[in-house]
């Protein structure tokens, strides 16, 4: 079992950058999937970026080339570096972790990009 908590959201102008962090506690060495989803107003929650055991990384097409996901050496924190932000990136960003079939979500952090 793990707990995850996000930090780093905020307000930024279009073209700017933000870095989100997600700190996990508990059985962090067992996390198979570790990454980020987002939910924009009126839309469903959608994958942003994910690190999967074995070195696989997946990005949503809309963020490919602008966002970078990474994980620290202790395997307990995942980051999302977001560059070239645009208003369409405005959303609540949720940290996600999965151990086998069990899913864990953070409370979410708001990212607002002004035009």
Layout of helices and strands, plus pairs?
Elements: E1 2-7, E2 10-13, E3 18-26, E4 33-39, E5 46-52, E6 56-59, E7 67-71, E8 77-82, E9 91-99, E10 102-105, E11 109-114
Parallel strand pairs: 2-11
Antiparallel strand pairs: 1-3, 3-8, 4-5, 4-9, 5-6, 7-8, 9-10, 9-11
Can you characterise this structure?
The chain is mostly beta strands and 115 residues long. The chain has strands at residues 2-7, 10-13, 18-26, 33-39, 46-52, 56-59, 67-71, 77-82, 91-99, 102-105, 109-114. A hairpin with a 6-residue loop joins strand 4 and strand 5. The mean pLDDT is 96.
H and E order: EEEEEEEEEEE
> Mean of the pLDDT scores?
96
Largest sheet: 7 strands, mixed
Distance, first to last CA:
40 Å
Q: Describe the oligomeric state of these chains in a short phrase.
A: single chain
**Low-confidence residue ranges:** none
Q: How much β-strand is present in the residues?
A: over 45%
Number of strands: 11
User: Quick one: overall form?
Assistant: globular
Bin the helical content: under 10%
Tell me the radius of gyration. Answer: 13 Å
**Number of DSSP helical runs:** 0
Secondary-structure-based class equals mainly beta
Key terms for this structure?
seven-stranded mixed β-sheet, 115 residues, four-stranded antiparallel β-sheet, mainly beta, globular
Write a brief structural summary.
This protein is an all-beta fold and 115 residues long. The chain has no helices and 11 strands. A hairpin with a 5-residue loop joins strand 7 and strand 8.
């Amino acid at each position: 079992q793990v707990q995850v908590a996000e930090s780093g959201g905020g307000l930024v102008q279009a073209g700017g950058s933000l870095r989100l962090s997600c700190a996990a506690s508990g059985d962090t060495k067992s996390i198979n999937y570790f990454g980020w989803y987002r939910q924009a107003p009126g839309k469903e929650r959608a994958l942003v970026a994910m690190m999967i055991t074995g070195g696989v990384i997946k990005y949503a097409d809309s963020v490919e080339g602008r966002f970078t996901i990474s994980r620290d050496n202790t395997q307990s924190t995942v980051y999302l570096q977001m560059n070239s932000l645009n208003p369409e990136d405005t959303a609540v960003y949720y940290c996600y972790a999965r151990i086998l079939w069990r899913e864990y979500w953070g409370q979410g952090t708001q990212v607002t990009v002004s035009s």
